[in-house]
Amino acid sequence: MVTFSLYSGLDLDGALMKPTMNFLQKLSADPTNPSLKIKTLTNAVDKRVRTGRINDQFRAVLFEIRDQDTHHFVLVDVDSHDEGNLKAERLDPARLRLDVNPINGITTLIKEEPAAGDAAADVDSRAKAEAAAQAAHELAAQQAKAVAREKGVEAELVEKQSPAPREVLGELTPEKLWEELGIDPALTEQVLALESEDGLDALLAPRPKWEHEAVLVLVAGYSVEETRESLGLRKVSASEAAESEDARLLAGLRQAAAELEFAYVDDVDTESLRSVIESGSFEKWRVYIHPEQRRMAENSYKGSARVFGGAGTGKTVVAVHRANNLAMGRVAGAGPRVLLTTFTKGLAQGLKSQLNALNQLYPEAGEPGEHGVWVDNIDAVVRKVVSLGTPEEVSEATRRVLGVAAPRVRPYTEMAARQVWEGALEATDESMPREIANEAFLQAEYETVVLAGGITTLAEYLKVARSGRGTPLNRRQRKQVWAVLESLMQTQAIDGQLFWPTMSAVGAEILNVRYERGGGSLFDHVVVDEAQDFNAGHWRFLRACVAEGPNDVFIAEDSHQRIYGNPLTLSHFGISTRGRASRRLTLNYRTTKENLDYALRILVGGDMEFLDGEGDVDSVTGYRSARTGPAPMIVTAKSEDEEFAVAAALINGWLAEAERAAEEGKHKEVRVGVMCRTRGQLSRVVSGLADHGIDAVQTKNAELASHEQVSVMTMHGAKGMEFTHVILMGVGKEIMPLRFRLKNLSEEDARAALQRERSLLYVAASRARDALVVTTVGERSELLPEG
After folding, report:
1. Pairing of the two strands 58-67 and 49-53
2. Does residue 39 have a known ligand-binding role?
3. 468 annotated among ligand-binding-site residues
4. Residue 448 known to bind ligand
5. How far is C-alpha 232 from the geometric centre of its chain's CA atoms?
6. Where does ATP bind (predicted)?
7. Which end of the chain is more exposed for a tag (fewer CB within 10 A), N or C?
8. How far is residue 387's CA from residue 408's CA, in Å, rounded to a whole number?
């Protein structure tokens, strides 16, 4: 059997895609095919190194491993056919070797130095790389400040010195880390010599991916045991150590941590290859997933399960892989009907795009409940189910939810819903305190107490425990509140129109009615992304979509990104993920360390705790980034025109930098996201940038934004997106938080509203991959961190 591993360092342009795939197909069919011209290099440090003919101009660099019936090739590079004209930055085949770590058994690719044993040269090259990276970051910061000075505005760089790694590692010696994890003692010595974490990036860049990750985890404060579990590391047994070298190399390539660097391909299938070729991206053969994430995506659970963590930690990647694995039958006992859902339409389109990138041949359901994966936002799924309900089912469902039957229902428009609330508030008892006679309080009470508890009568409402509701109500006030809520429920039934949370609860009861009458569940498995924003009606609906049992509901959430609704404890809806079914991710793959630190400090500035779906406090400690970059910048302008001028100058500078890189034959991606707090600011931002020569496109669709150089959106609309450069505009004292939203709120509701504003600012700031700029006219928002 012929199998392959693909090295993550492969860098193929569009012209090389198809010939490389054709080469792999031929090699899979017959490794002795003479047209492939497989050659052994006589001067190579590793006897397994081979070259093969891709076409007249290019050749493949690969390793050949033979063990019993397995014939394995490791493709590491595609380069110029002329060995005498190898590019300096490419991998020289003669100096490459595959090695197995004797402690943990992981296979890694090693590049031998020209001068054997020249450790000083190695240290010097890393020092130069570190200095170059630091210089690039400082240059970016200087250029940004120079733009601000040129425009005559105040600019402040937000810089924070990181602690020295030795302060965190404590008594973890080079010898201990070698014996326990297999980390090179020389590398540990260099890490301990650093004066701050700022040099880690450059130091770890040339190291094997598993070692890179392990050091980052340890420097983040994790124990040896936690690091081992995170990466799936283990110690080599005596029997394994005694096996042949080829057998150990193959086993090492199959380890979870090795998959950070190599994609193991069991079967080079013609259709799979064709789908990769047609996708236009060789990288889409393998969607990156960390060993810790892989376990969550592949494990079988007795019931529900949950992955949680900060922005950019890969929760969505886990959710997409999980849905694909369930649909493809790769999870023990998995059924064929899978729902993959999220909060908004734009986010759902992003999930579908990622699922296509992972597996273009995944089984897609034609309708909800059919075999395959159904991908859509939660409200669209609800609407589909309700629209297909019979008059009898809808009547019974509305009676259970509203206490009054309605044979047909549809959702209110946003304007109509507002008018219903205004009418209800006008009719409130004048003796009701203002802090409860307002839409914010009553809407939360309706969703988190009444809908969540399935309450339809005053008697039920007077007895229910209002868990999680900070504002207490005496018996008289409960009666007053119920009078308003009952009126709202009756109005919905009479109108035959529902608020969206009510719509979801009705959809749940339609499914329950069918189940009670002998029908089956709509889905076998439900996978939920951005779960922190779902309301009580949504959770009633999702619980009704799938029967309780193995792998029923899988949740990806981050309580710090809750920008809609209120915290809910999911066990109240029959969804429990406590214990080993719940896993926290801490490594940020998107945001630089500097930007991540700034975004997290936005969150810790408040005085409320963030509660997750289990009702536990969700901490921000332990989050880390594998990347460094320029410090965030705060710009204070005297007028909007000055603010637009600075933003435009920065954008022009970033775009010009990308053009210079292109002229030098390099690729530097620049996608700018410009975000503001309110919809009313959008048109002003687009026209203001246009006045200064920037062609920006207003959008709230992640897929469309990924094709634009400069996109403008609200902070809410930026959810689920990422950009190389981000500008948060108009973050002034009167805009964040919006003062009118806090009017007449109780102290507890006002604190909750402020917390959502912090979460919104955190979401926006964490969209930045490389550079983050915050601009304001006059006094800045109180939600921005100091210094």
Report:
1. antiparallel
2. no
3. no
4. no
5. 21
6. 309-316
7. C
8. 9
How confident is the model over 68-106, as pLDDT tens digits?
888 999 998 888 755 434 433 456 788 899 999 999 999
- Size (the chain), residues: 787
Please give the domain boundaries of the chain with CATH numbers for all domains: 2-106+254-284 (3.30.2310.20), 288-373+520-589 (3.40.50.300), 391-505 (no CATH), 594-777 (3.40.50.300)
Measured in degrees and rounded to the nearest 5, phi and psi for residue 185 equal -60, -35
**Confidence bin at 648 (pLDDT 50/70/90):** very high
How far is Cα 146 from Cα 342, in angstroms, rounded to an integer? 42
312 is in an annotated binding site: yes
Instruction: Report residue 477 as tokens.
Output: 């006030």
The mean predicted confidence, pLDDT, of the chain is: 87
**Contact of 526 with 304, CB cutoff 8 Å:** no
**How far is 201 from 629, CA to CA, in rounded Å?**
10
Is the Cβ–Cβ distance between 330 and 358 less than 8 Å?
A: no
Q: Report the DSSP pairing between strands 553-557 and 337-342.
A: unpaired
Amino acid present at 178: W
The phi-psi region of residue 530 (left if phi > 0; otherwise alpha if psi is between -120 and 50; otherwise beta) is: left
CB 651 within 8 A of CB 672: yes
Dist. CA 105–CA 675, nearest whole Å: 47
Provide the whole-model pTM: 0.84
Separation between Cα atoms, residue 74 and residue 76, nearest integer Å: 6
- The 10s digit of each residue's pLDDT in 209-257 is 899 989 988 887 788 998 998 888 999 999 999 999 999 999 999 998 8
Straight-line distance from the first to the last Cα atom of the chain, in angstroms, rounded to the nearest whole number: 60
Biggest CA pair distance of the chain: 93
Q: Does pLDDT of 778 surpass 50? A: yes
Q: Give DSSP secondary structure letters for 534-599.
A: --HHHHHHHHHHB-SSTT-EEEEE-GGG--SS----GGGGT----GGGEEEE-EESSS-HHHHHHH
Is 653 known as a binding-site position?
A: no
How far apart CA 129 and CA 136 sit, in angstroms, is 11
Measured CA to CA, the distance from residue 731 to residue 311 in angstroms comes to 20
316 is in an annotated binding site: yes
What b/e string do you get for 442-467 counting C-beta neighbours within 10 Å, with b at 16 or more? bbbbbbbbbbbbebbeeeebeeeeee
- Residues 373, 375, 379: CA angle, nearest 5 degrees: 135
Measured CA distances, 178 to 102, 186, 188, 251, 461 (Å): 10, 10, 9, 20, 62
- What is the Cα gyration radius of the chain? 29
**758 pLDDT more than 90:** yes
Q: Which amino acid is at 507?
A: G
The span from the CA of 655 to the CA of 668, in Å, is 9
Half-sphere exposure of 511 (CA within 13 A, CB side): 27
Helices (DSSP H) in 30-164: which residue ranges?
119-150
- CB contact set of 386 (below 8 Å; sequence gap of 6+): 394, 409, 503, 506, 507, 510
Return the pLDDT at 441. 92
Could you tell me the two tokens for 220?
């983040």
Place of tokens 């009580």: 536
Q: What is the pLDDT of residues 114-151, one digit of tens each?
A: 554 444 445 555 555 555 555 666 666 667 777 777 77
Residue 519 is labelled as binding a ligand: no
Choose among 553, 545, 552, 548: nearest CA to 514. Answer: 545
- Cis omega (within 30 of 0) for bond into 737: yes
